Amino acid sequence: MASRNFYIQLIFRVLVISLTALAFAFGVVKLWYFTMVFSFFFLITQVYFLIAFINSTNRKIAYFFDAIRNEDFTLRFPEKVAIKSFKELNQSLNRVNGLIQEVHLQLQIREQYYQEILKQASIGIMTFNEKGHILFSNPTLEKLLNYTPLNHIKQLAQVDEKLYQVFKSFRPFERKLFQLTNEREQIQLALKSTPLTLDGKSLILVVVQDIHEELDEKETESWVRLIRVLTHEIMNTITPIASISDSIIKYYRKNNKIVPLQDLDESQIKNTLKGLEVIKEQGGNLMDFVQSYRSLLNVPEPNKTIVSGKGLLEKIDVLMSARLEEGQTDFKLICDPEDLEFFIDEKQITQVLINLVKNALQSVNESDEGSVKMIAGMDNNGIKFIEIKDNGPGIPLDLIDEIFVPFFTTKNEGTGIGLSLSKQVMQLHGGSLKVRSIPNQETVFRLAFS
To answer: Minimal CA–CA distance to 319: which of 350, 345, 364?
Structure first.
C-alpha cells in the first residue's frame, strides 16, 4: 500500500512538472512574460519538492538499513504524519523493524543456549583460524590446560612446547594422543580435529578429552582378563598334578603310616611310574607356559631398516608354501604400488605376518573354497599397511575383544600369545594391529605403519 501511494504521488508530481514546463514553453512562444516568469518559478519549486520528497524516502530507508546493520532496533518512524503515503511507509518500516528485532532476539537466545552447552560440556573445545587466533575455547579446555584466557595457539607453548607443536601441525580429521605433565599431575589427552568454514574463512575445531579414567578402566579390565586366563591355564596344569600326586601318596601311606615295600604289588608300581610321567609332562607344560610369558615381557626394540614390500610378501609366500595344500586354499599376494617400502624390523614383522597367515590358513583349512589374501599398500592418508584377509568362519562378536589378551586361545593347541605378541611388536614400531570380522564372510587383520 505504501509503495502504491508513493508511486501515485511521484506520478502526480511529474505530471505537474510536465504541465508547468508546457505552460512555460507556451509563455515563451506567446511572449506572455507573466505566465513565463510564474511558470518558471513554479517549475523550480515543483522540482525542489520532488527531490525533497524522493530524498526523504531514501533517507528513511537508508537510516533503517543502517540501524539494522548496527543492531539498533530503537529507531521508530513517526506514524502520525499528514501525507498518507509517508504514514503507510513509516508503518511498514516499523513493522519490518519489529520482525527483524524479534528474529535477532531469537538468534541471540539460541546462541546463548549453544554457548552454555559448550561451556558446560565435559570435553574441551577450541576453534582457531589459519593464523592461529583462537576464536573460542570453553572453560573445560582452559581447566585441562590450566591456562586462561586463550587467545592464540602460541600461548600453548607456555603450557607445553610439544603441545604447541601438535596444534601448530594439526591437519583436518587428525587424531592424536598427548601426555600433558604439569606440577599437579599427568593427563592423557585425546585430540581430534575437524575443519569448519565460517563466513568464508577456514577454521579448525579441536576437541580435547582427558582419557585418563578411560585408560585406567581399560587397564584394569585388561588385568582382570589376563589374570582370568593365567588362572585358567595354571589350574588346568596343576589340577592333574595334585590329583595324581594324591593317588600315588595313597599307595605308599595308609593310616598315616608308610606302607612296607613287600606289601606293594606290581600294578601299584606301574601306576606310580605312569603318574610320575604325567606329572613330569604337566610340569614341562607349565615351564613352557612360564617361558612364553617371559618372552612376551622381553620383546626387544625393533632394529628398523628399509624393506621392500613386494620382497617381504614373497618371503612370506615361500615360508608358508609348505602349509598350503594343493588346490585346496587360494593364497594371493598383492603389493600396490610395487615399489612400496617399509621402515621396519624385518625379522619381527616377518614373524608377525607368519603368525597371522598361519591363523588364516588354519581358519579356511576345512573350506572347499578357502581364500587367503595378503595385501600391502598405502591409503589416502599416506598410511602404509599390510592386510591379511580370509573367508573362513570368522571371529564371534563376543570374542573379538578377547583375542589380543595374552594366553587367550580357542584352539586345542598353542600358548595363545601369538596375537598379543604381534600387537606388542606393532606398538613398538609405532603402528597398530586391528581386526574386523564378519562371520562366514571375511576376517581382516590390518597392520598399519605410521
So the answer is: 350
User: Nine-digit cell at 133?
Assistant: 587466533
DSSP assignment of 327-361, as one string? TTEEEEEEEESTT-EEEE-HHHHHHHHHHHHHHHH
Closest CA to 225 of 405, 420, 400, 416: 405
pLDDT value of position 2: 47
Q: Cα dist. 57→52, 54, 95, 288, 440 in Å?
A: 9, 5, 16, 97, 78
CA atoms 101, 106, 112, 118: torsion sign: negative
**Could you report how far apart the first and last alpha carbons of the chain are, in Å?**
70
User: Is pTM beyond 0.85 here?
Assistant: no
Name the percent of the chain lying above pLDDT 70. Answer: 77
CATH domain 122-210 topology = Beta-Lactamase (3.30.450)
Domain ranges of the chain: 2-108, 122-210, 215-297, 305-449
Q: How many other C-beta atoms can be found within 10 angstroms of the C-beta atom of residue 160?
A: 16
Q: pLDDT tens-digit profile of 56-87?
A: 666 766 666 676 667 666 667 666 655 565 66
- Kindly list the distances between the CA atom of residue 260 and the CA atoms of 97, 170, 263, 273, in Å, as whole numbers in the listed order: 115, 83, 6, 18
Per-position b or e across 304-314, b if 16+ CB within 10 A of its CB: beebbbbebbe
List the beta bridge partners of residue 91. none
Q: Are the CB atoms for 196 and 127 separated by under 8 Å? A: yes
User: What is the pLDDT averaged over residues 311-330?
Assistant: 74
Dist. CA 357–CA 320, nearest whole Å: 8
Query: What pLDDT does residue 283 have?
Result: 78
DSSP H/E element including 178: strand 175-181
- 305-449 — its CATH code? 3.30.565.10
Closest CA relative to residue 302, chosen from 428, 421, 176: 428
Q: Is the pLDDT of residue 15 over 90?
A: no
For residue 292, what pLDDT is reported? 61
Cα–Cα distance for residue pair 357/370, rounded to 1 Å:
13
| Strand-by-strand arrangement of the 370-378 sheet | 329-336, 370-378, 384-390, 442-449, 432-438
Look at residue 312 in the predicted model and tell me its pLDDT: 92
Please tell me the class of the 215-297 domain: mainly alpha
